[in-house]
Amino acid sequence: MSRKSNTALAAACVLLLTGGEEARSQSVAEFYRGKQIRVIISAAPATDYDMFARLISAQMTKLLPGNPTFIHQNMPGAGGIIATNHLYNIAPQDGTVIGMVNRNMPHVALTKMSNVKFDPAKFNWLGSPEVSHSVCVALTGVPVQRAEDLFKHDLLIGGAGSGSAPSVTSHLLSNLLGMKLKLVEGYKSVPDVSLAMMRKEVHGVCQSLNALQGGNLQGWIAAGKLKVLFNLEPKPLTSLAGIPTIFQYAKTDEQRAILTLNSSTSVMGRPMLTPPNVPTDRLAALRKAFIEAVNQPELKAEVERVGGEVTLVTGETMQKVVADIMATPPAIAGKMQQMIQAPK
């Protein structure tokens, strides 16, 4: 390399280093003023993840110092894994990209699901606007009308991709407890599954209760068109009188431990995060703006209008939940990994 080339390269390196130092020495407001923040959403448009991401970012633009604008990019696929991989490996780590990802991403990483290329503990979690209680439901009139029926009759249940909660839950309950959940894949999103239920292509789904009550099947439980079979958390839900928890059908400590692990992400609801290594001051500002956004009366009113409920979970709380999940004993993690595979 010539002396001239060496000089040019050295000058470029100095410029790069000083530019980076200058950017990091800026205040948060100076950094964000005039910028765009890209919001990567791991679900399709018109899903509950999509709704929350857009509602929250519409408030954050007013609350984050510098008032950056927010643009949205839906990146569905592989049950949320594609978007989460992108946020971990490709997205800038300077605070100009945030994401809303599927709440079960810590589980798919823990169980070493194929194509996972991220460590959930290294993300910076901003928080969640809700706690998501999950249920399995069946259409009224099919052979399965109670949880006990799943040990006698098949239930055609819709899936939304190999890493999605509906698909993973179906495999888990079939393998772990012997329930006859017959998974039908090919649907791009959970709303597509509910449309398939309306056409009676499939007869059930396992998903968030809030999403179920606010989506295509809104009002179906109250109208008697859907039967709730059970919820997936350790305790029955007070909002569903007389409906059992799946834990009532566990017979061993190992089964209970795996079901507990599976339900551990309910507190994560609709999680928002940043890629790793975002500067500390920008992360603190993003978390503060997130909390303030979720607490805005207009956001709460819009969520309630579509049948949802707002329950703030902070980023610090989620960071600990994720760390605890990733610290699961290898024996339990390995057993869960076996249980979420497609039944043979």
Sum this structure up briefly:
With 344 residues, this protein is an alpha/beta fold. Helices cover 42% and strands 15% of the residues.
SSE layout and pairings?
Layout: H1 3-25, H2 28-32, E1 36-41, H3 48-63, E2 69-74, H4 81-89, E3 97-100, H5 105-110, E4 124-128, E5 134-139, E6 155-158, H6 165-177, E7 181-184, H7 190-198, E8 204-208, H8 209-214, E9 226-231, H9 253-263, E10 272-274, H10 280-294, H11 297-305, E11 313-314, H12 315-326, H13 330-339
Parallel strand pairs: 1-2, 1-3, 6-7
Antiparallel strand pairs: 3-10, 4-10, 4-11, 5-8, 5-9
Helix pairs in contact: 3-10, 9-13
The CATH class of the largest domain, by name, is: Alpha Beta
- CATH level-3 fold name of the largest domain: D-Maltodextrin-Binding Protein, domain 2
Q: CATH H level of the largest domain: which superfamily? A: Bordetella uptake gene, domain 1
Helix content: 40-55%
Shape: globular
Describe the fold and architecture.
The structure is a single chain. The chain has 13 helices and 11 strands. The chain is α/β, with parallel strands linked by helices and 344 residues long. The chain has 2 domains: 29-131 and 267-339, D-Maltodextrin-Binding Protein, domain 2 (3-Layer(aba) Sandwich); 134-265, Periplasmic binding protein-like II (D-Maltodextrin-Binding Protein, domain 2). The strands form 3 sheets. The chain has a 6-stranded mixed β-sheet with strand order 2-1-3-10-4-11, sandwiched between helices. Strands 8-5-9 form a 3-stranded antiparallel β-sheet. α6 links the parallel β6 and β7. α3 (48-63) crosses α10 and α9 (253-263) crosses α13. The chain starts with a helix and ends in a 5-residue tail after the last helix. Mean pLDDT is 92; it is low at 14-20.
